[in-house]
Amino acid sequence: VVKQRSRADYQLYAKEMEKNTNELLLIETALRRAVEHDELVLYYQPQIDLASGEIVSYEALLRWKHPELGIVSPAKFIPIAEESGLIIPIGEWVIEEVCKQLWNWNEAGVSETVVAINLSAKQFQQPHLVDMIESLFNTYSITPSQIEFEITEGALQNAEEALVMIQRLKNLGVMISVDDFGTGFSSLMYLKQFPIDSLKIDQSFIKDVLNDKKDEAIVTTILHLAHHLDLSVVAEGIETLEQLEFLSRMNCQKGQGYLFSRPVHPEVLNRENQKS
Ligand code: C2E
Ligand code: MG
Ligand code: MG
Ligand code: MG
């Protein structure tokens, strides 16, 4: 009986695997065409100065509008894009799209808008990256201080190469922040050595910051550390007023979350700018 069941289990498992592999292949094939078929869209989520309540910047977040699947979450397709190497053309599309948007906003007189762009580890390791960015800045007359690049701790693992890359980016004049801070292979060494501008506290620590003593300790410690190292901090995933009050009391500079706004299509922001 045991044998039979394990064989049945195995067959089920194999079927499941096959299904997953097929799904992955389907997504990969579809993703390949997404760029050319204009299925990718960038949404923008405001980042708020907690003391003044003003929007100080936006994070660009990728959305894939598949004709049949509907909106596919980046959490689902970014890993596949990384695995298949498609992240390189997709990542380049993202940077160009942000530059175009900034050019439009600059033209419309919505000046000095700052946009944060996520860079995947693979993109960050591309030697060609900095030249590509520089040429896009030239094409769209972008002031480099209008751009911030968000990198995760995973991208910093090869410290020597990462340091060279960060320095080249900083020489362009952009800002660098560490995304999902505290969830990767954190090493305090890079905070000492790398010219980083800000830390983004991962939303998993913010979620229960009011009820969980450990989350509270981690968040306050990150804030102290950042203040002492003269780094700016963004708290991610603020959903309630209580979380906002706690973070303000702890002198967290910036925040981002559904309490303020979900990521929105740029048209929504254009309409709001016209209103005010
Ligand atoms: P991330 O960079 O850490 O982005 C923050 C994520 O948290 C976004 O999910 C955002 O929609 C979500 N979020 C914001 N406020 C709240 C909140 O109050 N509550 C909750 N529960 N979630 C909130 P999203 O847009 O699904 O993106 C997921 C991840 O996909 C991003 O995490 C980033 O790692 C990656 N990603 C998105 N766009 C790009 C891109 O253009 N390039 C690369 N390489 N990665 C991207
Ligand atoms: Mg991010
Ligand atoms: Mg994050
Ligand atoms: Mg994340």
UniProtKB/TrEMBL annotation:
Q: Per the database record, which ranges form the EAL domain?
A: 24-276
Signal peptide boundaries: none
| Domain of life of the native organism | Bacteria
Q: This protein is called what?
A: EAL domain-containing protein
Q: Which residues of the full protein are shown?
A: 422 to 697 of 697
